[in-house]
């Protein structure tokens, strides 16, 4: 019996020793795998922090900073004698800061009666800016009267999302006279915004017909920008700085404003055209087409009824 017990103990000890060696081997393999994984993680951290550190730093900074355009004033247009035909006047515009708006529907319901515009029209306008970042303000109204400005300023605490901005409004001094020569302005269309060569943004105004169209790039100038800090919700926190843009270039025409007006008077109530040339050099002194229209109507968004009347 003793011999049998001794043999049993030896066989058990041998089996335990065999399992121990196998277990030690597995632990070594597992330790090696864990070591390789830790080395890979350390290498990844080193790559991100050291090799690509500056890239990710700039990326994080760009997510914190936003650039908001400052519209450049459009260049003035003069006749051959230096008389102003087209210039810019200060104008009050209403901007909607979507990052501060708690309820868009309530904001538009408040603004519609003051602006005297239909609510669906404002809703459609806001829809156009859906793809634009929330820190970019929406232009809701142009050419506000002093009474309208006062209404929004009084309700500033209740509606902080509305901002009254002072900008430039195009003024065609001759009105109907020279309308076909000068043309007018219109808001950039979707196909124009999609053209990268034009460099236009939503809300930009471009030339439509006449001189405004032909010399649009020269008259438009280059917008400036201001850099603002935004929080995680996209709300503006502070302004870090601003860069002044380049105003549009001035333009002097060969048109004689007095002769242009005289030609307009000769065609008053009639349909026709008048062209006056300087025979010495071929310069155009007057260019009239009747009937005409008032280009000052196009310095703001027209309602459907106004379009139909025109």
What is the structure about, briefly put?
The chain has 310 residues and is α+β, with helices and mostly antiparallel strands.
- Helix % is 40-55%
* Coarse shape: elongated
Structural class: alpha+beta
Q: Average pLDDT value?
A: 80
**H/I helix tally:** 11
Please tally the β strands and state the result. 12
Largest sheet: 5 strands, mixed
Computed over alpha carbons, the radius of gyration is: 35 Å
Proportion in β-strands:
15-25%
- The end-to-end distance, rounded to whole angstroms, is 122 Å
Which spans have pLDDT < 50 for at least 5 consecutive residues? none
Please, could you describe this protein's structure?
With 310 residues, the chain is α+β, with helices and mostly antiparallel strands. Helix content is 41%, strand content 24%. The protein is built from eleven helices and twelve strands. A hairpin with a 5-residue loop joins strand 8 and strand 9. It starts with a helix and ends with a helix. The model has no long low-confidence stretch (mean pLDDT 80).
